[in-house]
Write a structure and sequence with these properties.
The structure is a homohexamer. Chain A is α/β, with parallel strands linked by helices. The first copy, chain A, folds into 2 domains: about 120 residues, NIF3 (NGG1p interacting factor 3)-like (Udp-n-acetylmuramoylalanyl-d-glutamate--2,6- Diaminopimelate Ligase, Chain: A, domain 1), CATH 3.40.1390; about 120 residues, Udp-n-acetylmuramoylalanyl-d-glutamate--2,6- Diaminopimelate Ligase, Chain: A, domain 1 (3-Layer(aba) Sandwich). Helices cover about 35% and strands about 25% of the residues of chain A. A 6-stranded mixed beta sheet of chain A has the order 7-8-10-11-12-9, with helices on both faces. Chain A has a 5-stranded mixed beta sheet with strand order 2-6-5-4-13, sandwiched between helices. A two-stranded antiparallel ribbon of chain A has the order 1-3. In chain A, helix 2 links the parallel strand 4 and strand 5. The model of chain A has no long low-confidence stretch (mean pLDDT about 95). The interface between A and C is large, with 37 and 37 residues. Chains A, B, C, D, E, F: It holds the Pfam family DUF34_NIF3.
């Protein structure tokens, strides 16, 4: 058993919430309080109603998510929104969210975790945004097929590829989540092979013209790592039970 | 006992929520659901924690307010915000909010109610804003002192006056709430005596230069009428108990 | 053989370019001129370099596309951009683009064509945007599985589904291309089952909470119909050869 | 007798006009010239017509104000505006205005002066805005009632209080004028008791929820200090007569 | 002798100030009052200090200008600005300004007056802007040289020409003042020969590429007509002396 | 003969394109590629069709311009735009553009070149904009007539003057091109005599009121220097033929 306040303070500091920039809708930190104590931590990518139901069923009193509840701004507490908050409050479950701080953290970050999985053993931060570096990059001497095989193993499913770059992947850039729209910026930054979660249709023909290999490895699939890595350390340090909620979107 | 859905549908239609414009932060309509039934309606100007506590103590399962919970945009459900929602959910109290629709309604509107109280027996809508008329006006053959006396009786307290206009009030304009900043527009529209709830310091010297009588009758004090008039009709029609929550700010 | 001017004039009028709204990057109409004559028309979804190469190889002197060359604003005529324009000019191939006018046209539109393919025999325009209706809707008495089967046959490949709505599809809305982000608006408009081309990851959990069936049938795959239907009529009327360029992105 | 140029140069430097930020409407500095000489200085909070009349009646040839003539942007020189400028020009009276530079000055500032009056003997600058600190703060070991008594004595009238914070005032923040809307920022900055001039109605329930004591001491009443303190030094240094114009708004 | 109020009311109505749109800096109407009576009207294009000096020297008590005093927003009343207002006030001279209302008036308008001078006997309004038509157009069967000769006679000086359009001027468009930047819009509207006052350097090569004759007849030179035509009628109706102030800029 | 890549790389570095700010429409650098080799360089101020025709006629395979092709954003490749690109591609002529980098370069810059021509032997950078200095200034002990004579000799034609400043020019500021609108900023910066290319009509009366000498030396005429100075060095270093294209606008 631990105090929610202590967990929040530790995570805020560990993830450096006060300094890492983000979109205003992310609203990183404690999004929903509870009565003050935590015994079990659940983790998930999205803060949707089915996820809340699974977390409550698992007996969690703290849910840690990557995508919080407020991306659409203030919303009426009715319908699914009402059910979600009511369910959490009735079961005394708090909700904590961390977005970009949990993408770029050197240890827990989605980028760092996925990089380790695919053998980027010497990845360097790159792609500046508001004073931080959003991605990781490394020169890799492997083939496009080998990289695809590693990625599919890491995310546990098929990876869509636009094979417009070199057969040997060369300078590889990695930004988890929905950063396909940055493909022009990648080419400008010298990236030859770009790994991200998802990208809109137009990013594919653009990658073709830019001559960049573009790997779409799944928005959900590339972002399960961070919350779990954080939970691993948190539960160990504070002696909490933990459970990863599986709720993929296929996107 | 009534169905919350029925009350909400009736109020939405009566107040014409789908057509009356408002500021985006107003978020008119059902802001917080409950389990579906309503026996007692509470009314208040503001949706603050002390108001929720008084409404719950009064046994209300529907709270109708003029200023809803979302003016500051999406907010973490922590601190007072957490307590407020938890208190309402635990006591199965829904919250409904109506702002400008409850200022300008010809029967329930704060404008219409206050106009009746001070003897504007033939008030006409004026001051266009996004396709509606925000205020009421009427030529009145009474003195400034008489108008002040009527206003102080209506709002139950002192009214601050900038006596820069004519001794006989002449063309009187009325907009409840915080519309003092419209004093220039009032002068441009031919208003000689302007009644509103509150105005910033700079509106006083501006009224002096414009030669307009400016009555500051209190933001809270001029906006208790609408929710109570609505509740009067609603509780009668649906056979509900009702209670007005008194929680003035002195502003 | 036909005059390019005549073809352009006929398409501009037929597609009502001067009145149908669009995003500024669409730049509908003749995007690249040629020396004035056309014998063969090629059609494609995207105006990318590989598409230009295929169109030139096919001997086309007019390429009609759905996504034109200027979505990214003014671009240097270097790299792929240079090659593309040079290739077209050297082979005297003009380029004509039509985006939303080719989505919403009652006969040639991507919406209308796909609706026919999946048995929406009485589809009605809906979803207003800048004075037009962006989609088609119809109540359908079929199951979700049946609709999926029809869609997969129509687009010639797998369709991703978020099955959060009713088993019987009910009120079906259809907007081809990348309109997944409109899922909230769909729910607000009473759509129970929403068919579009692509949507970002966050649209899936949102559809779950809204209780809407969401079919992601592919951005490319849902937008091959319009250019080909237009070309069918155009080539018949002006006695031109024609060829559909196949260049899918898998997105 | 002194040269207007010399007075303006001295005040501009003393108040550091070229570096202290402000709202664009403040237009700090010499707002209206005269023929070049000054014998008597008048001071006031607002640059309104009644104030000009009192200053001219007092024989001033320089009027120093806190709120200048241009907050509403360019205005026709007709009506009160015409009378004001004509009156000043006919009586050869110049007008000098300083807003935020006269709030934050360590010696002449409204903040510093009021802080001295209420016994903040060790006040520290706080609340950053565009590179400066807008307020003063200090931990105080007195009761809310004692603070109110000191404030009422300092401003010479009643002070409105929202007593939502601790009985012992603790960390006190002070920003003169109309800064009530910063109450959320005050709570975030650790202020337990916040003194300002005025705030809108909504600041009161917000202070209640934040648990902050909020003192509304009057916009006019908290801003008479600065112009008079400046005039005291200026008139001494340049051997000028001086007079404080009293023209309160009650706000 | 006439009342200033009467002159202003007559001009406001005649020029339809309440309905004709304009840029916010224009501030059409009475910009500076006087003591109430007018005997002599001066007219000028610009409201600059040398113009005020000439108008005062001419004994005017009302100056009518096309470009008023507030285009740069609120300005300190110091330097030239102080001298200008002081000079006018000391000599009891009012200032009235009308910009677009005095460009587009069918009788007094700069457009209409210049059109008459160059033989556009059947000019039609065209070029919509905020609900009005900004220019006049007419098909003319004369040569470019003939048009230039007429223009140079009308404005009393040389006219700069970009002779990129047809030798016979064809469809001629006319917008007085600084509207050269609309040359693309002119071509889009079918204008073959465009007459305006001034245009920036880039408008010349653009006109060359568009194949439009572009006549730069001078901003000042094309805008002396309106104020004088207005003054002609005004002085006749109200029995006032009048004088046109000549103060060209050569631009 | 030289490689286009080498020329572009050398110019980009020499002109510091990656660091010098500009308007987004300038799009400095290689705007149109060719097949890779360059023998002859043409230079011009504007990238218009007549200029392209003259450059092709001169046998150039690289055209260097000051005002590039993209100021109006993305444009259809039809009409003059089509002809221009077709002409260049058919004749294998590349186009390189540099705007502000070619105004402010200490050696090749339009400012530096014109300063040398008129005897500003000790000109200092001034007038900060986005981290660079846009102009050159120097105190000069010569008369206004002498400066005008030097300028007219340098630009090879008449210079329009607003002689509102001192007879001895004093502090002279120089910004080539269309910077007349900065005359207020010049006065604020202590410039007594301001030389630029062009300014709108309103800059003249403003200069009069500010008491600044304003020389309008021609936008085209003040900007022929930079491209030619660059070409001089480039052609020498890479052993290329060169030719200056003369195509003035008179503006």
């Amino acid at each position: 058993m631990a105090r929610l306040d202590d967990l929040v303070r530790w995570m805020n500091e560990e993830l450096n919430l006060s300094e890492v920039p983000d979109y205003s809708g992310a609203m990183n930190g404690l999004q929903l309080a509870n009565s003050g104590e935590v015994n079990k931590v659940a983790t998930a990518v999205d803060a949707s109603l089915p996820v809340f139901e699974k977390a409550v069923a698992a007996g969690a009193d703290l849910l840690i998510v990557h995508h919080g509840m407020f991306w659409q701004g203030a919303q009426m507490l009715t319908g699914a929104n009402y059910k979600k908050i009511k369910l959490a409050m009735d079961n005394d479950m708090a909700v904590y969210s961390a977005h970009i701080p949990l993408d770029v953290h050197p240890l827990f970050g989605n980028n760092a975790c996925l990089a380790r999985e695919i053998g980027m053993s010497d990845a360097q931060p790159y792609f500046p945004w508001k004073g931080i570096q959003l991605g990781l990059k490394q020169n890799m001497e492997i083939s496009r097929d080998e990289l695809r095989a590693r990625l599919e193993k890491a995310v546990g499913g098929p990876v869509h590829v636009c094979p417009a770059g070199p057969e040997k992947v060369g300078m590889v850039g990695l930004i988890t989540g929905g950063a396909g729209s940055e493909v022009q910026a990648m080419a400008d930054a010298g990236i030859q092979t770009y790994i991200t979660g998802e990208g809109q249709h137009w990013t594919y023909p653009l990658a073709e013209e830019l001559g960049v290999n573009l790997f779409y490895a799944g928005h959900y699939a590339t972002e399960t790592f961070g919350v779990n890595a954080l939970s691993e350390v948190l539960s160990g340090k504070f002696k909490l039970a933990k459970e990863a909620i599986i709720h993929p979107t296929g996107l």
